[in-house]
Amino acid sequence: MAWHCDGTTNQEMVAKLKDAGILTTDKAESAMLAVDRARYCHEPNPYLDRPRTIGYNVTISAPHMHAYALSILSDQLFDGARALDVGSGSGYLSACMGVMVGPRGRVVGIDHIPELIEMSTKNINEDCTDFVKEGRVKFVVGDGRLGYPAGGPYNAIHVGAAAETLPQQLIDQLAPGGRLICPVVAMEEYKGLQELLQVDKNSDGTVVKKKLMHVSYVPLTDPASQLRLIAIKS
C-alpha cells in the first residue's frame, strides 16, 4: 500500500490521489474536492495520507482508503441513490456520499458511540450546511453490524471497520444492483490481517463476492467492547 498522497491543502491531497491512480472517477474526485477533510479531522496537518485519531478508540481512515471506497462505489452512488455508511465516525465519508447522491439521495451514517454521532452532525452542519436540514444525510446511533433497515434498501453500503465475518444483515439490506464493501478479518488467529471484500447483489438477488486488497482497520464491535478497549489503553 502506497502512503505518498500527503497534501498541504485539500486540493493538493485530492490531486495526488488522482495522480496515483487511486481516485479513479470524476464523481469521487468532485466529492473529495467539495468536502474539506479538515472539517472532519481536527488534528494538525489533516491532509496527511494516514489514519488519524478522532477519539473513542476510533480513527478517520487515511485519504487513500476513502478515495478507494468512493471510486469503487461510484456507480452505486448515483443521483437519488440510498447509501449506508457503517462506522461513520466523524462524518467525512457520509458527507462525500451526500455530494455524490445529490439532493434526492439519502445517506445514513451509523455509529454506536453517541458522542461520535454528535461530532459528525456538528461537522457536517458546519461544512455542508443543508445536508442534514434537507434530509440528504442523517446520523443515527446503533449497531452497524445490524445495518439500518428503516433507511433501506441501499444501493451502496460502506463499512469502515473490520468485521469478524461478513454481516448477513448488511447483505440483506442491499438493493438489487447494489454494492457493499467491508473489511473482514482474514485469519482468526491473526486479526491484523484483513481483506476488503466487495459484495454485489444481482437483479435476481444472487450475490457475488470479490476480494479487493489487504487492509488494516479498527474492529467492528459493540459499544461495550469499544469502551473496554479505551479503558485498557488509558
From TrEMBL:
PROSITE patterns linked to this entry: PCMT
State any GO CC term.
cytoplasm
Provide the protein's localization: Cytoplasm
Give GO MF terms, alphabetically: protein-L-isoaspartate (D-aspartate) O-methyltransferase activity
Which UniProt key words apply to this protein? Cytoplasm, Methyltransferase, S-adenosyl-L-methionine, Transferase
Q: Which reaction does it catalyse?
A: [protein]-L-isoaspartate + S-adenosyl-L-methionine = [protein]-L-isoaspartate alpha-methyl ester + S-adenosyl-L-homocysteine
Q: Which CDD domains match?
A: AdoMet_MTases (cd02440)
Leading EC class: transferase
Name a single GO biological process: methylation
Q: Please indicate if the UniProt record lists Secreted as a keyword.
A: no
> What is the name listed in the Swiss-Prot or TrEMBL entry for this protein?
Protein-L-isoaspartate O-methyltransferase
